[in-house]
Amino acid sequence: MSGLARGKVLFRYADLIEQHTDELAYLETLDNGKPFLLSKYGDVDVVVKGLRNVAGWADKISGQTYKMDGPYQGMSLYEPYGVTGAIIPWNFPMAMFMMKVGPALAAGNTMVVKPAEQTPLTALYLAALAKEAGLPDGALNVVPGFGPTAGAAIASHMDINKLGFTGSTEVGKIVMEAAAKSNLKPVTLELGGKSPVIICEDADLDVAVDIVNLALFFNMGQCCTAGSRIFVQDTIYDAFVAKAVEKAKKRVVGDPFKPEVEDGPQVDETQFKRILEYIESGKAEGAKLLTGGCAVGNKGYYIEPTIFGDVQDDMKIAREEIFGPVMSVLKFKTLDEAIKRANNTAYGLAAAIVSNDIDVANRFTRSVRAGTVWINCYHVYDHSLPFGGYKTSGFGREQGLHSIHSHMQLKAIITPLKDSPWL
Ligand code: NAI
Ligand code: MG
């Protein structure tokens, strides 16, 4: 298919998804537990916009011509990989699905996708809509299954030429090894995080509290980019903590289909238990439990929005990704110290600073080793912005043109120049 024809199908696909917003949002909430209104106005919107963005790129992919040193002409040509694969997680099932499928198809590849075993429903529904949109048979293949079987089959497959993975750092290493040991397929890895948020003493306290509340509690804390290490300058620490606790206590936890609910359950029992274990470890290591800390009710996997104060850098809750509604607040004195401690992590996915001093903010954004840095905001994403990690948070960039290029190989073609008047 030509780029224009691919774009046409993908635009139709986006329209169909938009028309089925309610069904998709319903399935996503049923599967994942996130609030229905967030599924509807957040996740489906991200899917539709991201798909339209890459559909628009489908007929605008171009290389360059090069003036070479000798009597030759060079050109670069973007080519699709052919068959590509993707393994996706359960925290944003449809958004992650489209972040991989959209660019793969727009760039002219086919794709085999494995949704997370916890959340296969929207991927299957999206596959049905793709067929309705006119995608040729075989272009998109959804294979639900477990990681060590279906996932491993994709990672080690000899006929899959490129792999996109989002999930834990632990499994990221496993799939990369499988890719290397099979056909050395290139991989794009989007993995975990332990993202720092620096609250400086000149920050507006209410703004800062709103930012960290969103940074950590959004999606029940199940975000790779969750702002989970909150560094607060010592002079405002007490005032900040009091307000942060007050705000966390107001969050409404419960049935995700009720419109007033902000936090549904954690995705499954494994995650639920894991998070409660982290809370116990925080207590055992001497962090100060300021609010929350318990399950809500005795049915389902609901956890209270939890905040620990006086957290030290070497505590487990400050080092490991919890992936739940557990905030760690740490105290700092100087910016130098905050930068050093912010970088003292194996991860490097996101970071944020809250300050009204542009020089402080600029210094931080250039000092922190993270793929996304927010100044005075959090969880702002866009299909046009590169998204991906530093360090063990992974590599490769997704979204928009970046993701188109990561789904293509770049070929150099050289031809002699005969009797050219110039070189
Ligand atoms: P996971 O990394 O095991 O699962 C992610 C995907 O990888 C799923 O589709 C799963 O089936 C697949 N997978 C698992 N083992 C595999 C294997 N051997 N070969 C190929 N594919 C495999 O994540 P899990 O166990 O669901 O969650 C554990 C922790 O991982 C979470 O608590 C969180 O810290 C982190 N995580 C990070 C995510 C992110 O967005 N970066 C998303 C999900 C989890
Ligand atoms: Mg796992």
Overall pLDDT confidence = 98
Q: Taking Cα atoms only, what radius of gyration do you get, to the nearest Å?
A: 23 Å
Question: How much beta, percentage-wise?
Answer: 15-25%
User: Strand order within the widest sheet?
Assistant: 10-11-12-9-8-13-14
Shape: globular
Low-confidence segments, ≥5 residues, pLDDT <50?
none
What's the assembly state of these chains?
A: single chain
User: Helix segment count?
Assistant: 14
Order of helices and strands: HHHEEEHEHEHEHEEHEHHEEHEHEHEEHE
What gap, in angstroms, lies between the N and C termini?
A: 36 Å
Largest sheet: 7 strands, mixed
Hetero compounds: 1,4-dihydronicotinamide adenine dinucleotide, magnesium ion
DSSP E strands, number:
16
Judged by helices, strands and strand pairing, the structural class is: alpha/beta
- Helix share bin: 40-55%
Distinctive features:
single chain, alpha/beta, seven-stranded mixed β-sheet, globular, binds magnesium ion, oxidoreductase activity, acting on the aldehyde or oxo group of donors, NAD or NADP as acceptor, Ald_DH_N
Task: Describe, in plain words, how this protein is organized in 3D.
The strands form three sheets. Strands 10-11-12-9-8-13-14 form a seven-stranded mixed beta sheet, with helices on both faces. Strands 5-4-3-6-7-15 form a six-stranded mixed beta sheet, sandwiched between helices. A three-stranded antiparallel beta sheet has the order 1-2-16. The longest helix has 22 residues, at 36-57. The chain is built from 14 helices and 16 strands. It is 41% helix and 19% strand. α2 crosses α3, α3 (36-57) packs across α14 and α4 crosses α14 (400-406). By secondary structure, it is of the alpha/beta class. A hairpin with a 4-residue loop joins β1 (65-67) and β2 (72-80). The structure holds 1,4-dihydronicotinamide adenine dinucleotide and magnesium ion. InterPro entries: Ald_DH/histidinol_DH, Ald_DH_C, Ald_DH_CS_CYS, Ald_DH_CS_GLU, Ald_DH_N, Aldehyde_DH_dom. Belongs to the aldehyde dehydrogenase family. GO terms for molecular function: oxidoreductase activity, acting on the aldehyde or oxo group of donors, NAD or NADP as acceptor.
